[in-house]
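Per your request, structure below.
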């Protein structure tokens, strides 16, 4: 590449910011309508500009529009083409406007649409989780802490944990939408504009909730993009955790689920393999989303007020996060829908004696033993069972009595079913509590009861 080409290409952004063409044209149409209504330009000129912009949108969407890198960005490409179509009057479009407030408005509009798409995809994944939980409401599995079997839980309870995570994600994205729902047009380059514009009219035309309050803040504000990246990073983390569960559960060591063939791949060397590649890729893409958040934070951290050309670097991370997050949400929803459970294997793992140790300690507490003492007793019992390669429920009452005279014959009634039923509190894994949580989730998602 020659020196001249290097210099001329370095600041070009059209290769990616052309994605903003709908928002750029919509913002220009609303702006020029307001200029005409306010008498800042003649109505005939406003109509000529609007007609030209509508033709340009048709050209772009039909694929005949010629993008010119030498014009650097989406704004100048559209304005130059408008000048070719309607002549000098095209120059009136930029009256009372700067590329600074123009691009901030474009990105806000684009982000609002993207955020709606993300919210819809979150709901789709939530529905998949809820329906999978409902179809397997009686399936019992071991719950884990430290990747060690801890206590028995309902599989549905586990699925609804991810529903709750995604509900918080939805709240964060709704906040993001509200932060983006602010119109920047009218802020000018930095200080506003001396023309008698009507920002309220333009706001209504473009569907914004409110207008920005400070022109200097407005043209340099990208907090709403940071909100989106942050919400995306947290959402990606939640999906990565779900993906990790699927990877573990589908392994031979766990054997809890079977992932559908279309979401697995074979090995290039080992013909027996069914690798959970889709879940692994979803897990891996989370790091990419984290990187985009850090990229924009780093770009923003040293910028003095107001606009600086560094802000051109806000778009590629945004588009990449959108293009990463949306398909991941959708793939995870489809994959969950097709997962096949192996309930016998799940129950067998839950029946591990260790998972009932807490219930036995609670039994002693109910008999008046202080919890710390009860904990010590059952800890000794668990160590004995491990040394003898037996399970707690295999011990006769006589052996229980060797550890504590408080035990009675009813201790032998403790099972994974009684353990789950005992957690009958709001938020617990008892069947009726999980059923109520399912009903509440279905109602929130608009699913039939």
């Amino acid at each position: 590449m020659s020196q001249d080409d290097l210099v001329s290409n370095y600041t070009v952004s059209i290769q990616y910011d052309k994605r903003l063409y709908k928002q750029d044209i919509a913002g220009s149409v609303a702006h020029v309508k307001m200029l005409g209504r306010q008498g800042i330009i003649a109505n005939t000129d406003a109509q000529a500009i609007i007609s030209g912009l509508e033709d340009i949108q048709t050209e772009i969407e039909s694929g005949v529009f010629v993008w010119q890198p030498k014009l650097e960005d989406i704004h100048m490409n559209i304005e130059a083409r408008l000048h070719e179509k309607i002549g000098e009057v095209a120059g009136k479009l930029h009256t009372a406007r700067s590329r600074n407030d123009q691009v901030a408005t474009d990105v806000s509009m684009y982000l609002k649409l993207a955020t709606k798409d993300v919210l819809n995809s979150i709901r789709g994944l939530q529905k998949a989780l809820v329906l999978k939980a409902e179809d397997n409401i009686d399936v019992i599995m071991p719950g884990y802490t430290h990747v060690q079997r801890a206590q028995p839980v309902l599989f549905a309870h586990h699925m609804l944990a991810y529903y709750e995570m995604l509900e918080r994600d939805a709240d964060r994205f709704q906040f993001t939408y509200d932060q983006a729902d602010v119109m920047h047009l009218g802020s000018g380059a930095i200080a506003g504009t001396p023309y008698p514009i009507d920002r309220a009219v333009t706001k209504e035309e473009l569907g914004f909730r409110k207008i920005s309050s400070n022109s200097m803040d407005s043209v340099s504000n990208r907090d709403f993009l940071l909100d989106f990246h942050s919400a995306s990073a947290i959402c990606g983390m939640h999906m990565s955790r779900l993906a990790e569960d699927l990877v573990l559960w589908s392994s031979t060591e766990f054997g809890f689920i079977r992932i559908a063939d279309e979401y697995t791949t074979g090995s290039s060397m080992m013909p027996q393999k069914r690798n959970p590649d889709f879940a692994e890729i979803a897990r891996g893409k989370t790091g990419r989303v984290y990187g985009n958040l850090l990229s924009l934070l780093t770009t923003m951290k040293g910028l003095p007020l107001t606009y600086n050309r560094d802000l051109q670097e806000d778009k590629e991370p945004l588009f990449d996060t959108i293009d990463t997050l949306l398909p991941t949400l959708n793939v995870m929803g489809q994959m969950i829908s097709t997962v096949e459970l192996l309930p016998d294997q799940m129950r067998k793992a839950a029946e591990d004696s260790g998972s009932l140790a807490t219930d036995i300690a609670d039994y002693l507490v109910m008999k008046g033993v202080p919890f710390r003492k009860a904990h010590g007793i059952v800890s000794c019992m668990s160590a004995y069972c491990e040394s003898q390669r037996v399970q707690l429920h295999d011990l006769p009452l006589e052996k229980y009595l060797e550890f504590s005279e408080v035990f009675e014959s009813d201790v032998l009634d403790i099972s994974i079913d009684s353990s789950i039923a005992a957690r009958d509190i709001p938020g617990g894994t008892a069947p009726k509590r999980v059923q109520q949580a399912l009903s509440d989730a279905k109602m929130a998602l608009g699913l039939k009861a």
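The chain has three domains: 3-95, 100-196+209-348, 353-445.

Regards,
D.
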